[in-house]
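lol ok so funny story. i was supposed to be doing the assay writeup but got distracted and ended up predicting the structure for this chain instead. priorities right. anyway since i did it might as well share w the group, maybe its usefull for someone
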Amino acid sequence: MDINERRKRANIYFSRTYRRFKVNSKEQLIYMFALVLPTMLLFLLFYREISKFITILVSRPLSMVLPAGNVKIVSSSFLPVFGGVYHLSLPSVLPSYTEILINLAVTIVLLGVSLYSSKREHKKTPLPIYFSFILIIHLISSIYFLFARSYFPFSSTEYFELYMKQQIVMWFSLIVLAGFVLGVIGFGKMRRRVLLFFILLVYAFIFGIVRYLAFSYIIAVGSSLYMAFLFFALGPLYEFIYFVFFYSIFINREIRYFGYGEGRNDWQWL
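and the output, tada:
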């Protein structure tokens, strides 16, 4: 085997037979150093002010529906270098035994329906599995409050402190993940990747505020019984679900563009 044949074999790309995308290192560097890294730095420098702004924004409608003096804004330590976070402080409300028994009965019925739906051959979708998961969490929470209501270790203030800290971590993780997926291993037009990056951040910010308000109202008007259910059903971990949703739409458009549209000329043939 001569030297030229060895060079040809060394340049075979196994990701797609006979063609591949030519990596634009310049665009990758611009995307990371001009967009992602500055966004990460700005977020670390101003997340304390962001948490304060969100908490003040959420506290105003709550103050209109809750008794005077029940809604407070407090701060707690977080990252040593970049500072703490602001969050709500609300009175803790333990559920009554009537509320616990009603939740137990409703949860058991809904869980049975969800498990039955997940086993039907012609209706096998991920939704029954997801509903079963969160219903099992609420069932465990209801059983705990039924037998150990007075030993519940979390107050509402501690719950919202944990919520805000995890929200900050999830937002920062979203910036890192979106930057890596769209800037390093992703392909597509630069303007589309930049647009998707900001769409993800704006959506996460708006959804985080609405969710914070909804959680605060339910826990303040209801009780601590719903803390675990809300946190695991629609909590900060939910960010990754809509990240996959928006990214799948983006990938679908890019597939049509590069597979059947003008982007076919961007393929490098071997």
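Residues 25-65 form the longest helix (41 residues). Residues 95-151 form one domain.
back to the writeup now i swear
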